[in-house]
Amino acid sequence: MRSSSCGIQDTSLIISHWYGSMENFTPLQSLLLDGHGGARELSTDQLGEQMPGQVLWLHLDYTDPASIAWLRKHSGIDKVFIEALLAEDPRPRSLVEGDALLVVLRGINMNTGADPEDMVSLRMWVEADRILTFRHRRLLSIQEVASQLLAGNGPVSSGDLLHEIVDRMLTKIGEVVGGVEENADELEELVLTGENREIRTRLSGLRRQSIALRRFIAPQRETISRLYAERVTWLNDESRARLREAADRITRYIEDLDSARDHAAVTYEELSDRLAEQMNRTMYTLSVVAAIFLPLSLLTGLLGINVGGIPGTQSPVAFAIVTVVLVALGVLEWLWFKRQSML
């Protein structure tokens, strides 16, 4: 870790040291901020052009062996924090070391064929004049901030860049959370109208998605809340205020997820009640039908036994009489059930 108290000459020597050690690998992205909202992309052999007071943003793949080797040997970051940056599945958190910040966040997975709740880990090491970001899977928020800088309307300092990355990630989270809420409302309407037979499966999927998203988003509330209170010199009052607003946003997203999850649970219970009521009505109807036909079946069975003495066997009108009697009996039973308010 480089001391923030280094003079300009010492800082230049440190910059030359760790830039000069980057000959064996190429970062995913190297941007030198101009301090006015713009940036220019640097090749590996141009990295030494950074002057004291300027901010360099290096974007790296934490699974790349060359990046790992440079980080361990030449980055100047303490070993404990390097291990945190390279951890397999870190939880969102922030740590302070001198005048530097280690930040771990999770962003929405917008890659093709991926589930949004399978969130992408972003690790950041932020100093006054250097920002290192690490990822393995592509993160759209990083690309958007880089495009914004190259277009000349991006952040001007380390604090602004940190907030802009956080803000872009929260925007993507907000879009997904909004979609979850819309799905919950749609499924409730389908339950009320009874227009979809796959509602139970969709409700279960919605609840699983809400739980999975909350698992990674909830810890970020504490992480972002701590960011604006950290004692680092390069975070000005404006950046702290914007980070505080970001903390309020993610709190609102968590509340929305909780609301959508509870909404889905209530809708699921309502669906189960409706299905149970429908099943009860069906069983009740079958029971009434069985009760009506039970005496009729008894009579037809009695008259159908193959023994002597059955009345009417020699009469040509006996069948018609029995049929009329059975129909009349069935009608009387139906009227009795209806009078008893059972139909």
Describe the overall structure.
This protein has 343 residues and is α+β, with helices and mostly antiparallel strands. It is 57% helix and 12% strand. A seven-stranded mixed β-sheet has the order 2-1-3-7-6-5-4, with helices on both faces. It has eight helices and seven strands. The chain has one domain: Beta Polymerase, domain 2 (2-Layer Sandwich), CATH 3.30.460.
Give short descriptive properties of this protein.
single chain, 343 residues, alpha+beta, Beta Polymerase, domain 2, 7-stranded mixed beta sheet, 8 helices, 57% helix, 12% strand, rod-shaped, disordered N terminus
Q: What is the helix tally?
A: 8
Count of discrete domains: 1
Identify the overall geometry.
rod-shaped
The termini sit apart by 83 Å
CATH class placement: Alpha Beta
Structural class: alpha+beta
**What is the subunit arrangement here?**
single chain
Would you give the CATH topology?
A: Beta Polymerase, domain 2
Strand content is 5-15%
CATH architecture: 2-Layer Sandwich
Global mean pLDDT: 81
Which residues form runs of ≥5 with pLDDT under 50?
A: 1-17
Radius of gyration using CA atoms only: 36 Å
For this structure, what is the CATH homologous superfamily?
Answer: CorA soluble domain-like
Tell me the helix content: 55-70%
